[in-house]
Amino acid sequence: MSLDKKRMLRTLNGETLARPPFWLMRQAGRYLPEYREVRKSSRNFLEFCYTPDLAVEVTLQPLRRYAMDAAILFCDILVIPDALGQKVEFREGEGPVLEPLRSLADIKKLTCEAMPAHLAPVFETVKRLSQEIPGDTALIGFAGAPWTVAVYMVEGRGGTDCSNIRKWADEAPEDFQALIDLLVETTADYLTLQVKNGAEIIQLFDSWAGILDENQFRRWSIEPTKQIIERLRKSCPGVPVIGFPRNVGKRAEMFVTETGVDGVSLDQDQPLDWIAETLQPKCTVQGNLDNQVLVAGGQELDRAVIKILQTLGNGPFIFNLGHGVVPETPPEHVGRVAELIKGWPETAKSIS
Ligand code: CP3
Predict the structure, then answer these.
(1) Which residues of 39-61 are buried (b: 16+ CB within 10 A; e: fewer)?
(2) Mutation to probe ligand 1, out of 26, 34, 68 (largest number of atoms < 8 A from CB)
(3) CATH 3.90.1150.10 matches 3-347
(4) What global pTM score does this model have?
(5) What values do phi and psi take at 140, rounded to 5?
(6) Does 36 participate in catalysis according to the annotation?
(7) What does DSSP assign to residue 279?
(8) Is 39 one of the annotated active-site residues of the chain?
(9) What are the helix and strand counts (H, E) for the chain?
(10) Whole-angstrom distance, CA of residue 282 vs CA of residue 89
(11) What phi, psi does 347 have (nearest 5°)?
(12) Probe target for ligand 1 pocket from 42, 77, 323, with the most ligand atoms within 8 Å of CB
């Protein structure tokens, strides 16, 4: 099928489609019984990500149920610290735990040379997926943005007050810059290899961008993102990039203007009218259903989906969540969202 038949690529090229494309962040995961079943075969989550047979299978699972317009490679943002030689572990019920970096000497111990070989199974997964996904479905590759990956590398886990990384970035910015530079270089090479193996779109997750003030946001989120995009445009011309600067409020506008992203993914706190008026004239927008409304379901879910489609559907738009699908989500609620979008715009008439 010619590439321009893929809704995702058309939309990211600036086209407005009568029926917008949709996919969901974390569309593969624990809310699906078939995921939990496959997941049992590997105790170690990184090993699971590095086993192409399993990673291909769980990437395809949500497509079989809901026929999203995009598949997102099944992997994790923390394979980069793992490939750089930092100790990374995923603990049951606890999430990721890393041996935290605390000094320039710790950064200097990391090396990017082993990345292509270490992550070869991920590239193999991408290659197989590009051959196996349906012809009208686009394949999204991804990485964490340097700031967000650095948060885990320095804090050692998620969900902290980020006091270590804030202190480091404020008090010794030149040292901290060495870590960001290493991540820019490694991430750009990693994404280039994903594209060379068949990824058609790249998404950069900056889940922790919201804790930065304006100057910090420019230096630690916008600037590294811009550098990765510039490198990618040289190595892989024409590949669209979606940025996800989560919880940054109105600073999403400077993110769009200054990074050169083709699309911006927005969290559920971003007002729909503001997105339509301010961001959509500048780039394709993606979002932003509240993942808790997806858990709740019912009329509230129907109304929220329709409202998003009505407000953002008149310009280049990709339907998604404001953050990932959570494990408590009833799978049939995802089915309802798929039904509402696929029937759009006729479905609007059936909802009061
Ligand atoms: O979207 C997809 O379906 C593709 C796969 C994907 C995963 N993680 C799989 C995963 C993607 C795109 C990610 C991105 C990711 N990983 C982010 C950025 C997006 C966001 O959520 O903010 C971050 C911060 C991580 C780091 C991470 N990975 C955490 C904090 C956790 C633990 C929390 C949790 O949900 O379990 C993970 C583990 C993880 N990554 C799981 C999955 C499916 C669950 C692990 C399991 O099955 O046991």
Answers:
(1) beeeeebbebbbbbebbbbbbbb
(2) 26
(3) no
(4) 0.97
(5) -100, 125
(6) no
(7) I
(8) yes
(9) 18, 9
(10) 40
(11) -60, -25
(12) 77
Ligand 1 binding site (Cβ under 6 Å of any ligand atom): 25-30, 39, 45, 72, 74, 76-78, 90, 95-96, 142, 158, 205, 207, 324
Nearest CA to ligand 1 atom 39: 76
Spacing, Cα 202 to ligand 1 middle (Å)? 16
Atom of ligand 1 nearest to the CA of 28: 3
152 is catalytic: yes
Q: Give dist(CA 100, CA 119) in Å, integer.
A: 21
Whether residue 11 contacts residue 318, with contact meaning beta carbons closer than 8 Å, is answered with: yes
pLDDT tens sequence for the chain (352 residues): 455 689 999 999 999 999 999 999 999 999 999 999 999 999 899 999 999 999 999 999 999 999 999 999 999 999 999 999 999 999 988 999 999 999 999 999 999 999 999 999 999 999 999 999 999 999 999 999 999 999 999 999 988 899 999 999 999 999 999 999 999 999 999 999 999 999 999 999 999 999 999 999 999 999 999 999 999 999 999 999 999 999 999 999 999 999 999 999 999 999 999 999 999 999 999 999 999 999 999 999 999 999 999 999 999 999 999 999 999 999 999 999 999 999 998 887 777 5
Catalytic choice (30, 65, 219, 336): 30
